[in-house]
Every structure is written in structure tokens, then in C-alpha cells.
Design a protein that fits this description.
Helices cover 35% and strands 12% of the residues. It is an alpha+beta fold. The longest helix is centred in the C-terminal third of the chain and has 21 residues.
Length: 110
């Protein structure tokens, strides 16, 4: 699994809560995956998020064949029903894991 990262802070992109939760979720859903950061050379809408947050991550939780990749931005662009289900499952668990990572212990008094 390749997670493309962008960070305004050198070295932070893979040493942050966001990356850790993504890494954990990838291993949870795709246990045999090897997770590593990479550079994404294509243009994405994420260029607009750089001023809104410290780190930007790009990851598509799908198994893609050579034929799938040929269809990107072309005729008959699609993913399989199985990949669609895996994508929904991944993002469901990602949101659940993020929620757990930010649980705050409430105190009655200061």
C-alpha cells in the first residue's frame, strides 16, 4: 500500500497521528500490505488543502490490475463492485479509528 504524503514540516508526514491511523487501518483491512510513504506525481485536488492542515495524505484502498489503471481518466473508467465495497469498508474503519484516536478523557474539575 502506498500512501502519498505532503507535509509543511520535514519528516512530520509519517510521524503524525494522521499517518499512524491510516497505517493502522490499512493493516487492519489489508493485513498483508506493506505500507510506505511515496511521492504522488499526478495532480489532485489536495493541492488546495495545504493551507488548511499540516499534512495531506492520498490513498486509494483498492486492488488495481493493469487493465484498471489503463481506464483512469479514459473511456469506461470504473472500479469493480468488490473494490467499491473494499473502499467503503476501509473508509468506514478509518473514520472509526480516527474517532478512537481523538477520544478525550473528561474531568469533572480542573
Amino acid at each position: 500500500a502506498v500512501v502519498s504524503t505532503q507535509s509543511g514540516h520535514y519528516g512530520r508526514a509519517t510521524n503524525s497521528e494522521g499517518y499512524n491511523v491510516i497505517h493502522h487501518t490499512i493493516k487492519q483491512i489489508f493485513p498483508d500490505a506493506i505500507v510506505l510513504p511515496a511521492l504522488l506525481t499526478g495532480g489532485t485536488d489536495s493541492k488546495y488543502y495545504g493551507e488548511l492542515c499540516d499534512d495531506v495524505y492520498r490513498f486509494a484502498p483498492s486492488y488495481l490490475s493493469a487493465e484498471d489503471i489503463k481506464r483512469f481518466h479514459g473511456h469506461d473508467e470504473l472500479i469493480t463492485v468488490k473494490n467499491y465495497g473494499q473502499t467503503i469498508n476501509f473508509f468506514y474503519h478509518l473514520l472509526e479509528n480516527f474517532e478512537k484516536s481523538f477520544e478525550v478523557e473528561l474531568h469533572d474539575e480542573l
